[in-house]
Amino acid sequence: MPGIDECLSEALAIPGVLGASVVDWSSGLLLGAVGQEPGHGHEAAAADTTEAARAVVESGTFTAKESGRVPVEDIIITAPGSYHLIRFLDTSFDSDVVLYLWLDRSMANLAVARLGLQSIAERLVLV
Amino acid sequence: MTGAEAARPALAVRGLPRRIPARGGAQAQVRAGVVGAYAFTAALARLAEARASGALYGSAGAVYLRDGAIVHAESPCAPDLGVRLMACGLLSPDQWREAVTTASAERGVGGHLVDTGRVARGELELCHLLALFDAAYFTLLPDSEPDRFQPGATSRLGPISRAVPAQRVAREAQRRRAQLERAWPWDDTDAGPVVPRSEGEVRGGRARAPTPGQLAVLAAADGSRTPVQIAWHLGRSAFATLLDVRRLAATGRISMPVRAQAPAVPAPARPVVPPVPPAPPAPPAPVVPPVPVPPPPAHGGPQPAVPPSSDPSVALLLRLRAALEAHL
């Protein structure tokens, strides 16, 4: 049963991953990070991840007809040289936590990365 | 012991927070030179620098250190690990009580819960870290003062998540104060009852939709619960609830409290020793915090000159300004 650090180590093993972090998107708090720091560092990335998560969850469009405490599964951003994956965690207790993955597009496979991240997100909350 | 007691014996036993005695008491060295704003934060920084181990008690909570890093924090304002795990139904009060009473010193309550298969290690670490930063936000409020440092004291929960550098916790508390200020620069909604407004009163059809968390806050707002009481009721972060309430205020989804004309000096300047709340009937433990949140009065930023008004057009203009600032 993995803890936060083990999950982040596993995320680093996903092909093409440059960096990974765990972020509380209700506050923007960085809960853990590994690998390279994107842009202006892990904490700045946590703040940006928070803004992206909020924008999607608070939109009337992307969560239309969705219900439940976590109305979104992933946010995927593709850029010419990179992929950014944000995975919402479904914890038993009340929280707003996401896993964030930054990948090198020339090395990564988007589908593989998404499935890998999903598996880590599930095991993080698995008894 | 009841579920509610099980949830917060440490605070009840140690009687936190308390009024500190006049300056110059036995613990004067803890406070020496650090009275005034950010006194607790300054005392914490000194202990961290000295790589101290033990518990620093203050007027709004306590922080536990190991070799100068923070391993645990608790505050009467912030729902703790037990409350959060019980509120969602993951643990019954009996299971939490059993974990607290039978856990060995080495494994601690966290280790016991993981070993018995009740809570996933990842979830436990996340919940503990979130509760730590939540409690630290209140404990490190600008006007909270250090009471005493007890060397060697450890949390009754035992080791759970990785220790966090004290500097990082202080920086996060500061970031959170700025975040509240940005969301809605008035603290009127922090301490008073949250009163939702009917959908028809909410203006601006293109306003952002409430998040699931904000909807839960609105659903729990019965017109008498304060944000901190809502946080305890839902077993969610008290800071996130404060922030959600301010955002709801900015979008006009809750009523602004009418300013009390009464005492110029805020009545309970500081929360006093909370009595242990009566036993809740059943899980999810509806633990009601005994103290209202001490409103953060001394923000780093400039205080707004104009208080929220009961005049709807003025209130609309204020919301408009807050929304514009939020998009700058």
UniProtKB/TrEMBL annotation, chain A:
Name recorded for this polypeptide: Roadblock/LAMTOR2 domain-containing protein
Species per Swiss-Prot/TrEMBL record: Actinacidiphila glaucinigra
UniProtKB/TrEMBL annotation, chain B:
Pro residues bias locations: 280-310
Region of interest called Disordered, as start-end residue ranges on this chain: 187-209, 280-311
High-level lineage: Bacteria, Bacillati, Actinomycetota, Actinomycetes, Kitasatosporales
Protein name, per record: Uncharacterized protein
